[in-house]
């Protein structure tokens, strides 16, 4: 009986040793994998940063007085290094509508920008009530508009929060505003999301040389005029004279809103180092004195 008990104890002890050995082996393997991935993550980050820097150089080399689809920075760039590869794309942000242009510097409401945003909602088929909720989020008072919402509404959430009562710090903040659902903000297979047409980085003017058809319609150009603009852009960069010949009345009302070059860009770099990815974004402003970095993000 005693021998049998000893045998059981011995087997149990050996089983524990075997389990501990297995756990230790797995721990060493996992630690090696983590170290391996961390090493490649570090390299991927470095390669992505190199891609960002390359994008800055490309932008600085463009000396045209206009920005158009034929410019050197428009086409994506692929760079290959011994450590990995990186895809670099550059998007002009002033081809979008600056949502913060609705507020003037003194925090009063800019009527022209309000009308443009109302046009954009209409063009995209979104509820006009979104204008009220946006204005209530931006303005400094606590009195809701007819279809708007102020502190009383946002205070019912768990946790409660308050409207910004000022300009947005990022377009993603729209998700906190009543009515701005993910279905409205995010793009799908067959639709453009509102967020893809908005920015907070620009001089409040829109580069019509690169603006999308939806933005051109937002500006007030008819479907026929938009088609003519797109046809002209296939041949050459636009100018004020070209737009005047297409639609003098609409263009005349937009002289303070449109331009033909870009100053604000988003450089996106996606690096791949042995299957480990790193995506980085840099918002820049191109000035006469060079490239000014505004915001850097990493995914």
From TrEMBL:
<dbReference type="GO" id="GO:0009306">
    <property type="term" value="P:protein secretion"/>
</dbReference>
<keyword id="KW-0812">Transmembrane</keyword>
<keyword id="KW-0997">Cell inner membrane</keyword>
<protein>
    <submittedName>
        <fullName>Type II secretion system protein K</fullName>
    </submittedName>
</protein>
<dbReference type="Pfam" id="PF21687">
    <property type="entry name" value="T2SSK_1st"/>
</dbReference>
<keyword id="KW-1003">Cell membrane</keyword>
<dbReference type="InterPro" id="IPR038072">
    <property type="entry name" value="GspK_central_sf"/>
</dbReference>
<keyword id="KW-1133">Transmembrane helix</keyword>
<dbReference type="InterPro" id="IPR005628">
    <property type="entry name" value="GspK"/>
</dbReference>
<dbReference type="GO" id="GO:0005886">
    <property type="term" value="C:plasma membrane"/>
</dbReference>
<keyword id="KW-0472">Membrane</keyword>
<keyword id="KW-0813">Transport</keyword>
<dbReference type="InterPro" id="IPR049031">
    <property type="entry name" value="T2SSK_SAM-like_1st"/>
</dbReference>
<keyword id="KW-0653">Protein transport</keyword>
<feature type="domain" description="T2SS protein K first SAM-like">
    <location>
        <begin position="95"/>
        <end position="185"/>
    </location>
</feature>
<comment type="similarity">
    <text>Belongs to the GSP K family.</text>
</comment>
């Amino acid at each position: 009986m005693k021998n049998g008990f000893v045998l059981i104890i011995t087997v149990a002890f050996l089983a524990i040793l075997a389990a501990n050995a297995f756990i230790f082996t797995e721990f060493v393997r996992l630690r090696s994998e983590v170290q391996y991935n961390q090493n490649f993550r570090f390299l991927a980050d470095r390669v992505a940063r190199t891609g960002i820097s390359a994008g800055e150089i490309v932008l600085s080399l463009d000396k045209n007085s206009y920005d158009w689809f034929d410019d050197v920075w428009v086409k994506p760039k692929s760079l290959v290094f011994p450590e990995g590869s990186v895809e670099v794309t550059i998007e002009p942000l002033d081809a979008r509508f600056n949502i913060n242009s609705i507020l003037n510097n003194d925090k009063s409401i800019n009527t022209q920008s309000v009308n443009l945003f109302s046009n954009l909602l209409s063009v995209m088929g979104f509820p006009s009530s979104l204008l009220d909720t946006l204005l209530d989020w931006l303005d400094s008072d606590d009195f809701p508009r007819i279809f708007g919402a102020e502190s009383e509404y946002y205070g019912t959430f768990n946790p409660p929060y308050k409207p910004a009562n000022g300009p947005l710090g990022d377009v993603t903040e729209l998700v906190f505003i009543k009515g701005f659902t993910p279905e409205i903000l995010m793009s799908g297979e067959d639709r453009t999301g509102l967020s893809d047409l908005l920015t907070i980085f620009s001089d409040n003017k829109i580069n019509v040389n690169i603006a999308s058809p939806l933005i051109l319609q937002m500006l007030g150009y008819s479907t026929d005029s938009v088609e003519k603009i797109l046809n002209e852009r296939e041949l050459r960069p636009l100018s004020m004279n070209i737009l005047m010949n297409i639609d003098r009345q609409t263009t005349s009302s937009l002289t303070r809103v449109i331009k033909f070059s870009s100053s604000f860009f988003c450089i996106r770099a996606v690096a791949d180092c042995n299957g480990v990815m790193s995506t980085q974004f840099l918002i820049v402003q191109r000035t006469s004195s060079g490239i000014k970095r505004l915001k850097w993000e990493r995914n």
